[in-house]
Amino acid sequence: MIDTRKLGQDGVQVGAIALGAMAFAGWYGASDDEAGVRAIQRAIDEGITLIDTAEVYGQGRSEALVGRAVRDRRDRAVVATKASAGSPAYLHQAIDRSLKHLGLDHVDLYYLHRVDAAVPIEDSVGAMAELVQAGKVRAIGLSEAGPQTIRRAHATHPIAALQTEYSLLQRDPERDLFPITRALGVTFVAYSPLHRGLLTGRIRTSADLPAHDWRGQVPRFQGDNLAANVARLGPLEALATRKGASMSSVALAWILRKGQDLVPLVGIGRPENVDRNLQALQVQLDETDMALLDDAFPIGCAAGARYPEAAMASLGREAPLPGAPAGG
Ligand SMILES: NC(=O)c1ccc[n+]([C@@H]2O[C@H](COP(=O)([O-])OP(=O)(O)OC[C@H]3O[C@@H](n4cnc5c(N)ncnc54)[C@H](OP(=O)(O)O)[C@@H]3O)[C@@H](O)[C@H]2O)c1
Question: What is the CA(273)–ligand 1 centre distance, in A?
Answer without folding.
Answer: 10
